[in-house]
Amino acid sequence: MNPTEIILHQKSRLLELAFDDGARYQLPFEFLRVFSPSAEVRGHGPGQEVLQAGKLDVMLTGVEPVGSYAIKLTFDDGHDSGLYTWEYLSELGKYQSGMWHDYLARLEAAGASREP
Q1: Nearest residue to 58 via CA among 10, 100, 7
Q2: Quick check: 14 and 93 in contact, CB under 8 A?
Q3: What is the 3-state secondary structure (H, E, C) of 35-86?
Q4: All domains of the chain, ordered by start, with CATH?
């Protein structure tokens, strides 16, 4: 599966993606940041994930293609590692609701906040 459109909506803080299978997703910048595929966020193995807090106002400042399989996103908090493959972006779109629910529960359990 490959993207047919990638649209950056700065005002609404959404990255909109359309795929050649007809799927279309709008992924908030904050969601993309807290679910970055980087080792800094995901760790180097199961159970090593690092909870990302305070990312409510994060902005996406750059979208750069990486070959024909991914994009590299740059955020205004300096985070720019991790490659978002088309497959990973599609998974984020498909499972966004459940992933977000789990993230909010983890934040609450840690006594952390989305507020910077």
Answers
A1: 10
A2: no
A3: CCCCHHHHCCCCCCCCCCCCCCCCCEEEEEEECCCEEEEEECCCCCCCEEEH
A4: 3-109 (3.30.2020.30)
The amino acid occupying position 72 is: K
Contacts of 83 (CB under 8 A, 6+ apart): 37, 66, 70, 71, 72
Mean pLDDT of the chain: 95
For 24-59, the pLDDT digits (tens) are 999 999 999 999 999 889 888 888 889 999 999 999
* Six token digits for residue 109: 């359990």
Query: Tens digits of per-residue pLDDT, 97-116?
Result: 999 999 999 999 999 999 99
Residue type, 84: Y
| pLDDT at position 45 | 80
